[in-house]
Amino acid sequence: MKPEEVYMAWAPAGSIWSPWAIPVPFAQIGCVPTDADGEIEGVKGLAEGLAIAADLAVVIDLPGDQGVRLCLALASRGFRPVPLIDGSPGPDVLGTFQGLLLAGQTAIARSGVAVDMRLLMRWLCIGAEVLPTLPIAAKAPPVFLLDSMRTGTANFDGANAFDNRWKTFPQDFPSAGFLKEQGIKRVVLIKENPGQPLEDLAHVLLRWQEGGISILAASAADATSAHPIRINRPSLFRSLWYRALTIIGLRRATGGGFGAWPHGSGGG
Fold first, then answer.
1. 258, 252 Cβ separation under 8 angstroms
2. Which residues pair with 87 in a beta bridge?
3. Handedness of CA 197, 201, 203, 209 (dihedral sign)
4. HSE on the CB side for 15, CA within 13 Å?
5. Please, is 16 exposed, middle or buried when counting C-beta atoms within 10 Å of its C-beta (0-12, 13-18, 19+)?
6. Does residue 91 surpass a pLDDT of 80?
7. How far is CA 187 from CA 103, 113, 148, 180, in A?
8. Taking CA 139 as the corner, what is the angle to CA 53 and CA 199, rounded to the nearest 5 degrees?
9. What angle do CA 111, 149, 3 make, to 5 degrees?
10. Residue among 89, 143, 84 nearest 113 (CA)
């Protein structure tokens, strides 16, 4: 399956949410045959208490492949996945990554990249095989997919490693007005520990909340525990300088998104 075919499986032309699907990770993706049907059967039971509703959207902010697996579980119930991952997987994605695609083994330590996206990419491949077979309506409520590991880990060596850290911005999401036009009144944020979102996502959710969208929080382990939250006001909220100041220190790729070596011609 070619990269553009994988992307189109996640962002089909008939979906009203596809304009927001970010193509960055799909540009380097290389899929190999897997038992996609068997893999998806193993995740359908995730977040069983979260049923589809016309007025409900979901934001998943879980680590890597955990988020993709939950996203596909919700897709099997009729939600439309919308990947908003803005980081490059790194220069070796078609090298050591191929074994993970085929075997599905646990990711091993990788010192050469800030955010290890190998298992996430593997599940994007599985999703590309499964999603076209699911009866998802063109106006199905969305599941916005992020990676909570997007800002890297504490032991990231910024001087020598490929820097594919990234952050999400309000411009990456539809506005509260657009959501309401589509009948969305509630948004459930699913993260490892239900509560306040990461600061970059707070800029998005507070705008939605101010626009009349109810925000709820839940854990992936117990989606039935979703409860309303008030989003704390993040630093530089609605500041004209927010985006520019936020990306200072992050390395932009020449082809879009984030991901470059600290020294060289790979990015900004």
1. yes
2. 258
3. negative
4. 25
5. middle
6. no
7. 35, 32, 18, 11
8. 70
9. 85
10. 89
Alpha-carbon gap, residue 173 to 220, rounded angstroms? 22
Element (H, E) at 2: none
Length of the chain: 268
pLDDT in tens, 162-178: 888 999 999 999 999 99
pLDDT averaged over every residue in the chain: 87
Q: How many alpha carbons lie under 13 Å from residue 106 in its C-beta half-sphere?
A: 2
CA nearest to 197, candidates 214, 211, 215: 215
Cα(52)–Cα(259) distance, rounded to whole angstroms?
35
Residue 7, helix vs strand vs coil: helix
In angstroms, the CA 24 to CA 260 distance is: 13
Helix (H) or strand (E) holding 215: strand 214-219
Written as six digits, the tokens of 128 are 């590309």
Strand order of the sheet with strand 56-62? 80-83, 142-147, 56-62, 186-191, 214-219, 222-228
Residues 48-57 have pLDDT tens digits of 889 999 999 9
